[in-house]
UniProtKB/TrEMBL annotation:
Name this polypeptide is given: tRNA modification GTPase MnmE
Positions with a binding annotation for GTP: 244-249, 263-269, 288-291, 360-362
Annotated ranges, domain TrmE-type G: 234-379
Keyword Ribonucleoprotein: no
Keywords: Cytoplasm, GTP-binding, Hydrolase, Magnesium, Metal-binding, Nucleotide-binding, Potassium, tRNA processing
Quaternary structure, from the entry: Homodimer. Heterotetramer of two MnmE and two MnmG subunits.
Binding site for (6S)-5-formyl-5,6,7,8-tetrahydrofolate: R40, E98, R138, K456
Record-linked HAMAP family: GTPase_MnmE
Location within or outside the cell: Cytoplasm
Amino acid sequence: MAVSDTSSDRNVSRARLFQTRDTIAAVSTAPGRAAIAVIRMSGPEAGAALDAIAGPRPEPRRASVRAIRDPRDARLIDRGLALWLPGPGSATGEDMAEIHVHGGRAVVAAALDALFACPGVRAAEPGEFTRRAVLAGRMDIAEAEGLADLLAAETEAQRRQAVLQAEGALSAVVERWRERLVGAMALIEAGIDFSDEDGVPAEARAQARDELEALSADISDALADTRAERLRDGFRVAIVGPPNAGKSSLLNALARRDVAIVTDIPGTTRDVLEVHLDLGGFPVIVADTAGLRETEDAIELEGVRRAAARAETADLALWIEDATRPGGTPPALSAAILWRVANKIDVAAEGAPEADHRVSARTGAGLDALVAALGRAAGEALGAGEDVGVTRARHREAFAAVSASLAEALDGWDDLADELLAELLRRASDDLGRIAGRIGVEDVLERVFSSFCIGK
């Protein structure tokens, strides 16, 4: 029994999906007033639409100044740049075109309206340009996910990780693992093909087992490392403590803007308020919570419950206490890390109380040290974004399925027939193939591209 490669099947699947279709158009720059707006087109009518709105067609891949006109009445819309990007060497693999116009809302709206008047041109759906690039084989699913993360990156570490995946680092690791798996499959099937040869099946099985045990360990290590997923989501910090300890004031000081209402009335904060911060290049989500105390107020009681729940799910909890009223003891919280922070040190006696950090949200004293410590804690928990890792639940599901198939094969190694072992390994190979879109690309398209912006 020969070991088949799925690359030809993948190309057939892509060819079936990547058929002549509508030409799509969308603004690929951010909405709102700007100096320049870029409008992209992709599809079989891109060239004709460019001729109609900004003719004559420029030389391929050379930006040319053109009058942008409405093809229905030749009315001048703007003067800008036109680019002609014929396929298959374009981003989507199709014929593409761009017009660069001034970024006023009215200009962009008029240019789009003119384009949609051209035969066969319609508005793009979210992520449709990248979807077409994947179906054309210009990038794989994992690389497209990296591109989506790059568009959403808010910190330097997130950017580094997204670029790594968009450039194919995860896909390369998965492909190496798949090649090792296919090699083990070949050894098992060699035992089937040469079952009449003395010693061949046993020797082939032994070599395959060594390879599969090493591969299983590598995949288990990848599953155990959650840093890449956490880097996408952010390091979660919960600010908790008794009422009037200055929790909301500290949140405002960390955010450097008024996020939370601050008063001297206990119980002012009733719900969880979040701010997203970039601390040392790492994404940190800081949540202000209601003061923890006994209360009969139903609304405040719900706030207290939510505060405790947020602390329990946080990567780090900051227990804020009033330095002018020392002696409080933090309740038992199941946060991964708990730091005691003494606030209001500007009006407290020197040295009281004992704490991991001493700050004044009002004057800013001690805040730089606290912010630096938070950045270090986030970096230790999330990693620097420089290593390939599991970044999505979809990847984790696929790796878990591979790990389960390998475990079943290794656990039953001495009892399973070669044909059953080969089937388990084929199933594991298929699950690995799903990560980059080698297998089941149609099943994940909607799931991946629904988060993209319209012009990408």
